[in-house]
Amino acid sequence: MAWDFATEPEFEEKLVWMREFVHEEIFPIETLKLSYDQVIKVIKPLQDQVRAKGLWAAHLPGELGGVGFGQVKLGLMHEVLGQTPYGPVVFGNNAPDSGNAELLATGMEMTGRHDIRERWLDPLLNGTMRSGFSMTEPGTAGSDPRLLASTAVRDGEEWVLNGRKWYTTNGSVADILIVMAVTNPEVHPYQGSSMFVVPVGTPGVSILRDVGSMDDPEVTYGRFGNHAEILYEDVRVPADHLIGPEGSGFLLAQARLGPGRIHHCMRWLGQSQRAFDMMCERALSRYTHGSLLADKQTVQNWIADSRAEMHAARLMTLHAAWKMDQVGASASRDEIAMIKYYGATVLHNVIDRSLQTHGSLGYSADMPLEAMYRAARAARIYDGPDEVHRQTVARHALKNYTASEVPSDHIPTRAAAAREKFAGMLEFLEADSA
Ligand SMILES: Cc1cc2nc3c(=O)[nH]c(=O)nc-3n(C[C@H](O)[C@H](O)[C@H](O)COP(=O)(O)OP(=O)(O)OC[C@H]3O[C@@H](n4cnc5c(N)ncnc54)[C@H](O)[C@@H]3O)c2cc1C
Fold first, then answer.
1. How much is the pTM?
2. Domains along the chain?
3. 57 with 93: CB under 8 angstroms?
4. Ligand 1 centroid to 177 CA: how many Å?
5. Which atom of ligand 1 has the smallest separation from the CA of 143?
6. What is the pLDDT of residues 33-48, one digit of tens each?
7. Among residues 92, 179, 197, which one has the least CA distance to residue 133?
């Protein structure tokens, strides 16, 4: 019977190397206040080491320049990389570039158009091109992409795009934007939307601003990781900038978001573990009211609850990854939805408890916890708000049940049925005991 929680030894060796590398070589970079260009220069030799180890862009199959790990291995890898914001970029699988590369690869598979690889996929993988993913609009609910208002209309050998997007992460530093727009309003939205590659310099593309947010309320325009508001006004792109067939926008979005959510959840676990480590160290170091924090039952409860919740989230996420490897993203929808809202809540709670354990130090920028806390808050919103994923899971669960005026477990009703079923036996028992 196959029911194995162990990591195969060859891959465990790789994880050991990654843990050490991330801890020793990447963690220190966090503390340097570097511009985007400086970061790129500092991490270049580290990226070369990752390439030499054969771990670069592991999310893509071998034939596309990746490593071809399945989701379980990728998940375990992301748990290590997610401990630090620079981890994914050093390993060539940072959002949104990694998801966009997957989307381009899926589009290529759907149409057999291999020019996509040379034009956009390879440069993204090599890190010589940056991308943004432009789906969410300020004027319509991102939680329900069926309401998408941006349009793309075919005009001869071109598509003409119009719309306003926001929260396009890295939009202000990107070379290309992948834009989702309605191409056929006559059919169901799931069949009527498409994705396009829009080079940033195309006339009609206006990057209006980087949106100030909990990430950075006083945002400086053009910083890596910012979220841009972008106006697309009569933007003309050649017909071959359509990715996949016309009408495949939702399919492509799912191809991008399914694995992406597993990677997010595992990165959140890496972050949670880091916050947990800080909490335990501080609990053993801070003395107040006659004992260490580690001796207070409240703090012990925080530690115990955090461990249990992280363990549960980890098992759920690895199980979702395993299921995806076995039966694909679509059949694993519930598992992926569950880890999205459960994982985001665990991340938030563990960081919150760790911050509280540190008191004013935790609230200060002398510890990474305040920044981690702000980043964790966003996890409950992006990739679909938690409420939408809960709704999906609940709706699917409810399909297994039917309404019943008398509850199926109503004891008097069941007792009457049991008396009828065992009438003969009950008669015998009564006679026996008389
Ligand atoms: C840090 C960050 C990065 C992002 N990066 C990108 C990016 O790169 N590209 C991109 O296109 N988008 C990006 N987004 C946008 C993100 O995908 C959207 O914010 C998300 O899909 C929600 O859409 P919305 O903000 O329009 O919220 P709305 O759709 O307006 O929803 C608002 C709230 O309504 C509630 N709600 C919604 N539906 C339901 C329901 N069915 N039941 C109960 N309550 C419900 C939820 O609490 C939700 O938070 C990013 C967002 C953040 C915060």
1. 0.93
2. 9-113+122-126 (1.10.540.10), 131-243 (2.40.110.10), 250-398 (1.20.140.10)
3. yes
4. 19
5. 29
6. 888 889 889 999 999 9
7. 179
